[in-house]
Specification:
Layout lengths: L12 H10 L3 H14 L4 H7 L4 H14 L17
Helix pairs in contact: 1-2, 2-3, 3-4
Length: 85
């Protein structure tokens, strides 16, 4: 089993849940609640199940959370061709 990704030390479960209450994007809220469960000590599988994702996907979201905070959990617009008009 791969090593767990460490969570940011400047956040805790209470602060993550507060960010989830303020968020407007449903997917972001779901991801924040899964990360809050990880902060509370749930194993990666249980936290991922709470967020309706697999453990590998949770690991990816934790990395984005560590890099950019709650704003990193919002879906990005996919890259594509530039508009011509």
């Amino acid at each position: 089993m791969p090593a767990a990704v460490a969570l940011r030390p400047d956040w805790d479960a209470e602060r993550v849940r507060a960010a989830a209450r303020e968020a407007r994007d449903a997917d972001q809220v779901r991801r924040l609640l899964a990360i809050a469960a990880a902060y509370e000590g749930q194993d990666r599988s249980a936290a991922a199940k709470l967020g309706a994702m697999d453990p590998q996907r949770l690991r990816d979201w934790v990395r984005r959370f560590n890099a950019a905070g709650p704003d990193g959990l919002i879906d990005r617009k996919p890259a594509g061709a530039a508009r011509r008009l």
